[in-house]
Write a structure and sequence with these properties.
mainly alpha, 2 helices
């Protein structure tokens, strides 16, 4: 559930750090 939440947050406001994490998760 944490990963899904992170992805949702990244879509809301995509900061560089968050985007990097999302890329790693995918």
């Amino acid at each position: 559930m944490t990963k899904v939440k992170n992805l949702g947050q990244a879509r809301s406001k995509p900061p560089l750090r968050q985007q990097s994490l999302a890329s790693e998760i995918l």
